[in-house]
Amino acid sequence: MKVVATRPELRAGRAGLTGDVAVVMTMGALHAGHAALLRRARAEAGSLLLTVFVNPLQFGPAEDLDRYPRTLEADLELARAEGVDLVFAPSREVMYPGGDPAVRVDPGPLGSVLEGASRPGFFHGVLTVVNKLFQLTRPDLAYFGEKDYQQLGLIRAMVRDFDLPIDVRGVPTVREPDGLARSSRNRYLAPAEREAALVLHRALRAAAEAGSVEAGLAEYALVPEVKLDYLVLTDPMLGPAPEHGPARLLTAAWVGGTRLIDNLGVRLNGPVGEQS
């Protein structure tokens, strides 16, 4: 496995990759969810490229950029174990050599709801860095987790609308045995907060089983220390919820000082369960 940090090093390393090249983009602090992305990519591509970059553009003024975990050595260990060929771990100056970019990708209407409403500018920052990394790494395949469901949808839309020759593939959410979605931010949770955070998945399951958001809201009401941001039922493209067929439940909540998100694919008036 080769680790590079500059654009010339990346170009040289990328030139040596063979077959279809897959990319997995991360902000580091890798966990089992990232390992699942890498494993899926390794199985489906000829070469595997991992990016590790904590992107400042997607953090708001009051968010956790400074305390976001940076664990590069542990990340590289996991990358080696999953068969990564090339790791690109640039500095802020390498990614944004002229300072933070004045021109950014506009996510459109979908970028202003749910996560976009709660975190203004977030998806501008996400899509801008993803687009830059697409240009730098030139992948054939790109793998993103379904835990960040709205983000996955916006990346797919950007690839389609910008005619980028990349196949974007979603990978189902990886969970702890008790249902908590794996997240780099879970390490911020104190033991009592970790227990309280289980309400996110319970609320999604309750809403899925009932086919209505109200059942999920009742679960949240039982854990008043968790501050709900939203719990919504939509169609798979995040439009209005259908009466029948595939749908998506999405939620976000504050557990102490940590904001967590989760979602669940459901089929209304049919079998309930996560779908990819």
Helical percentage: 25-40%
User: Strand fraction band?
Assistant: 15-25%
Strand order of the largest sheet: 1-4-3-2-5-6
Distance between the termini: 30 Å
Structural class: alpha/beta
Poorly predicted spans: 271-276
Annotated CATH architecture of the largest domain: 3-Layer(aba) Sandwich
CATH superfamily of the largest domain, by name, is: HUPs
In total, how many beta strands? 9
Using only CA atoms, what is the Rg?
19 Å
Question: What is the tally of helical segments?
Answer: 10
Q: Could you give a short account of the major beta sheet?
A: 6 strands, parallel
Q: Choose one word for the global shape.
A: globular
Task: Describe the protein.
It is built from 10 helices and 9 strands. The chain is globular, with a radius of gyration of 19 Å. The chain has 2 domains: 2-171, HUPs (Rossmann fold); 184-268, 2-Layer Sandwich (Pantoate--beta-alanine Ligase, Chain: A,domain 2), CATH 3.30.1300.10. With 276 residues, the chain is an alpha/beta fold. A 6-stranded parallel beta sheet has the order 1-4-3-2-5-6, with helices on both faces.
